Amino acid sequence: MPDGTPPRVTRTLTSPRALQAAGLLPAAALPGAEAVAARYSIAVTPAVAALIDPADPADPIARQYIPDAAELLTAPHELDDPTADGPFTPVKGVVHRYPDRALLKPLLACPVYCRFCFRREAVGPDGGLLTEPELEAALDWFAATPAVREAILTGGDPLMLSPRRLAAMLGRLAALPQIEILRIHSRVPVAAPGLVTPALAAALETAKPLYLCVHANHAREFTAEAAGALARLARAGVVLLGQSVLLRGVNDSAEALEALFRAMLRARVKPYYLHQLDPAPGTARFAVPVEEGRALLRALRGRVTGLAWPTYVQERPAGGGKVPLGPEWDAKAG
């Protein structure tokens, strides 16, 4: 535009050239981004695009979503399947790593595609939507596995499903006598809050307790629109939890984490997990050493209410599940 102001984004941007046209990708970065797009999916919603400051080369929102040529560099410690979903998949769409809970992945599409995602080899606009027979087989597996008390819908982003399909899925799971808790992991309330319609909120009104884990990594993601979407979900009886990934250049300071956790609480979201980065290919630029993460949390102790305190966790190798990382405290210290 003549005054240098980037054009207003009105639809999801899914290619490097669309990002460049919107003023979100420098021309010099286009060849590298095109190479990344040949391997990994790209999507930046209007809500996310509006948060990015194109004049700031270190913008923490852009860093999460704008492709970078560094994604094509695989470090020696990085793994194709860092959470080892494969060995724990009894039927397509199900991951059963813990005795009492299991994941259901009904689709692999997301409103946005994070540049650090541990499933980014699999997710994309094609959606990976389970067919009706595949979904039936997955639901039959839950019905036949009485040890599983918690069903966790993830993906992909389950809130990308139609309200009708989502309500039917949750209803089937809630009707199983052994299922006590339902959980959904989603970026939708912050990345595409307009999708949280009254119909979607109504679809989440279930006979069993339902917890929604909202993935957000920076305080700016909690806009007025996101807060409105989350309030709508809270009114439907959904318990809101927050999960974040500790990311270099996004939230790797005590100030950034404090702002993030306070923003969550203001939006009715209880900080639940702070994840150590999973070593997916091409994500080394986001890595923060564990000891640095522990030091950041120590710096927050006493600065924020206990309500703002998440559990700092890391996935063990070979699908061993999450372990808490601390920090450790000396109860006798003054």
UniProtKB/TrEMBL annotation:
<dbReference type="InterPro" id="IPR013785">
    <property type="entry name" value="Aldolase_TIM"/>
</dbReference>
<dbReference type="Pfam" id="PF04055">
    <property type="entry name" value="Radical_SAM"/>
</dbReference>
<dbReference type="GO" id="GO:0051539">
    <property type="term" value="F:4 iron, 4 sulfur cluster binding"/>
</dbReference>
<keyword id="KW-0411">Iron-sulfur</keyword>
<dbReference type="InterPro" id="IPR058240">
    <property type="entry name" value="rSAM_sf"/>
</dbReference>
<dbReference type="InterPro" id="IPR007197">
    <property type="entry name" value="rSAM"/>
</dbReference>
<keyword id="KW-0004">4Fe-4S</keyword>
<feature type="binding site">
    <location>
        <position position="110"/>
    </location>
    <ligand>
        <name>[4Fe-4S] cluster</name>
    </ligand>
</feature>
<keyword id="KW-0479">Metal-binding</keyword>
<dbReference type="GO" id="GO:0016853">
    <property type="term" value="F:isomerase activity"/>
</dbReference>
<keyword id="KW-0949">S-adenosyl-L-methionine</keyword>
<dbReference type="InterPro" id="IPR003739">
    <property type="entry name" value="Lys_aminomutase/Glu_NH3_mut"/>
</dbReference>
<comment type="similarity">
    <text>Belongs to the radical SAM superfamily. KamA family.</text>
</comment>
<dbReference type="InterPro" id="IPR022447">
    <property type="entry name" value="Lys_aminomutase-rel"/>
</dbReference>
<feature type="domain" description="Radical SAM core">
    <location>
        <begin position="96"/>
        <end position="322"/>
    </location>
</feature>
<feature type="binding site">
    <location>
        <position position="117"/>
    </location>
    <ligand>
        <name>[4Fe-4S] cluster</name>
    </ligand>
</feature>
<keyword id="KW-0408">Iron</keyword>
<dbReference type="GO" id="GO:0046872">
    <property type="term" value="F:metal ion binding"/>
</dbReference>
<feature type="modified residue" description="N6-(pyridoxal phosphate)lysine">
    <location>
        <position position="322"/>
    </location>
</feature>
<keyword id="KW-0413">Isomerase</keyword>
<protein>
    <submittedName>
        <fullName>Lysine-2,3-aminomutase-like protein</fullName>
    </submittedName>
</protein>
<keyword id="KW-0663">Pyridoxal phosphate</keyword>
<feature type="binding site">
    <location>
        <position position="114"/>
    </location>
    <ligand>
        <name>[4Fe-4S] cluster</name>
    </ligand>
</feature>
